[in-house]
């Protein structure tokens, strides 16, 4: 390039020198030089005009203008640059088309929005699943098209670790699982998956467990009734039968407890027992449950402390809350050795209301904590076999809290006791109406 540049300079200088010599031949070297400069300037202007016209609309002509010398090289280089630009453009367009084709072939709905939720692009499945329209919905805010409040809260939360389940706004029989990812400049990639089949299977499972438990309850009540009568009249029985009858009676009571818990869990899960959001006096509830828990503790003589740090009421279903809190407090009794300490605290702060049940019992290894609320999960079956639990207590607690927009926190270490904390949102707290004095 450097080499060409000095060649061009040389040609220009030689040209101007030749023009000066021709001028000198006529006795006017300055006129010759001036005429040379004018010719060169004119030629440069003509080339600049051609370049200007071509740059204004390079697509109109296939090739860049042709020329010689410096301008020829400029045109050639620009032509090469333009060609490589076109090739890159074609390659990128092909790649974008391919990505769009593949996302269009996906069965999941894919939507791209900006940070505020304005829709930029979506695939065919999103049109089918969510009812978006290609011609009219571009640039619309997604919250205006998916009007479920839970979706808006999820979109704004920026915490997308867990997916959200909603009903399709266009086809209410379709259950969707929505997962958002952040990309680019705070933009959102939303993937909506049709989980209707999975939902129906889950519903069938719940119904099946609920129905079977119901059907088993009546025969079991009859068997338990007879066994109880036999136990009450044990002295009339031959001694070899007494132990068997006692064991059968204990096991049938256990089965009854299991069936009661299964029915309760299936009711809470299926929403058959709808959450009745009336104000519940948690203080009173704790006192009543602790009273029963002392009876359960019996000879183990646990020491109970009740701390009530907030007098407000909790909006919720009293019977569901009673099941949840009693499961936690009875568990504390079951898993705490004799004369251990059990502390129940009801408090509230900026984040919400909290019910904590803390014991000085056997505790659990933290590796089991994430799975404790699964049905029939036991941290260490060998250590817990005599507690007579159904294995469903914490699953019930978890579902009751889900129904109340809350969650369960578990802190525990082997040999150091455990703490189970139920967190409720602040909006569920209501002031106690002062009692009227006559
Ligand atoms: P279970 O009927 O077996 O008590 P739960 O669902 O109530 O069933 O509890 C599940 C498991 O969690 C228990 O088997 C036990 O291992 C553990 N667990 C629950 N509460 C406590 C506690 N207070 N201390 C230690 N372990 C506990």
Automatic annotation (TrEMBL):
PANTHER family (UniProt xref): PHOSPHATE REGULON SENSOR PROTEIN PHOR (PTHR45453)
BP term (GO), one: phosphate ion transport
Coiled coil: none
Alphabetized GO MF terms: ATP binding; phosphoprotein phosphatase activity; phosphorelay sensor kinase activity
Residue ranges of the TM segments: 30-46
GO CC annotation, single: plasma membrane
Listed EC numbers: 2.7.13.3
Alphabetical keyword list: ATP-binding, Cell membrane, Kinase, Membrane, Nucleotide-binding, Phosphate transport, Phosphoprotein, Transferase, Transmembrane, Transmembrane helix, Transport, Two-component regulatory system
Natural source organism: Marinobacter salinus
Catalytic activity, reaction form: ATP + protein L-histidine = ADP + protein N-phospho-L-histidine
Residue intervals of the PAS domain: 95-135
Protein name as it appears in the record: Phosphate regulon sensor protein PhoR
Residue span(s) of domain Histidine kinase: 211-428
Enzyme class: transferase
Keyword field contains Transcription: no
InterPro entries, per the entry: BphY/WalK/GraS-like, HATPase_C_sf, HATPase_dom, His_kinase_dom, HisK_dim/P_dom, HisK_dim/P_sf, PAS, PAS-like_dom_sf
Function of the molecule: Member of the two-component regulatory system PhoR/PhoB involved in the phosphate regulon genes expression. PhoR may function as a membrane-associated protein kinase that phosphorylates PhoB in response to environmental signals.
Recorded superkingdom: Bacteria
Major localisation: membrane
Family annotation (Gene3D superfamilies): 1.10.287.130, Histidine kinase-like ATPase, C-terminal domain, PAS domain
Keyword hit for Cell division: no
Pfam families to which the protein is assigned, alphabetical: HATPase_c, HisKA, PAS, PhoR
Subcellular location per the Swiss-Prot or TrEMBL entry: Cell membrane
